[in-house]
Specification:
It is a single-pass type II membrane protein. The chain is α/β, with parallel strands linked by helices. The protein contains 10 helices and 13 strands. Bound molecules: 2-acetamido-2-deoxy-beta-D-glucopyranose. The site of 2-acetamido-2-deoxy-beta-D-glucopyranose has 4 residues, from helix 9.
Amino acid sequence: MPSCSLMGELMPREVKRLGLGRTGQPCDCSPHLRAAAEHLRRKDLKISQLQAELGRPPPAPAQPPEPEALPAIYVVTPTYARLVQKAELVRLSQTLSLVPRLHWVVVEDAEAPTPLVSGLLAASGLRFTHLVVLTPKGQRLREGEPGWVRPRGVEQRNRALDWLRGKETAVGGERDPPPEGARGVVYFADDDNTYSRELFEEMRATRGVSVWPVGLVGGLRFEGPQVQGGQVVGFHTAWEPERPFPLDMAGFAVSLPLLLSRPGARFDPTAPRGHLESSLLSHLIDPKDLEPRASNCTRVLVWHTRTEKPKMKQEEQLQRLGRGSDPGIEV
Ligand SMILES: *[C@@H]1O[C@H](CO)[C@@H](O)[C@H](O)[C@H]1NC(C)=O
């Protein structure tokens, strides 16, 4: 319910309650009574919010009963607080809800788990694990620095690897790492990309490291492996093609047993620009052994989309007047 219509409904109630006049009449009460009315209005608003929460349906079971025979897909998503965070996570969680045998590993860049992410995970109906690690100061992107200067989410992805290896404790969701010998695949899915549900079935049977093209990345329509006779023979990219693995984070998945068999395999926070993916993959595989998926890398099933940063000019103006949007409403 938009707050403006709430106001309209609540004011008369308060006016009546305070004995100030008949419903609908303008209130010319003293500052003292106005403060009291404002106090009541806030209480009523809180009550409506709580009522709305109570009335919300319980999280739907996301998936039909899961065939245990399928290898599980562990989707690792680093995330950090910003205006569009909830929108991005809701969109991603609802894509992931379409995928059977999926386990979402969400790693917050924060000191402690936030109510927004905890609540969203609990309501998602997905199998999940909630981890938290704050990016160290020196690695943090500074105000105004462009995103490519230092890779984001490195500590968070490494924390997920540590959890998969049984070396880290979760703050929410399923705390136990996958059981020994479990079949599975690990995919690093940032919260701002767009994923086709088909992509997950392409990666499910990964034996070592599987690869596919990524749309709208690297200043190109797509970037991706070049395949001949079912083998990766090169990479279509405009930028530093001599990198060992010129792949985007969204363009590969790793089998869980392979990852667990190489305890040293992790992302290097000091890797030069564009070499983060290579810093992990060099521990795992030779480029010629990459497994091409998505019809020999001819289909784009994931897109490097970016959400525009919302402008908050009016919000700031209203806040200066003490009339900003209710901070009690999660956005
Ligand atoms: C990929 O290419 C190989 C070799 O040309 C072919 O045998 C195979 O069927 C292709 N796979 C798909 C899914 O198109």
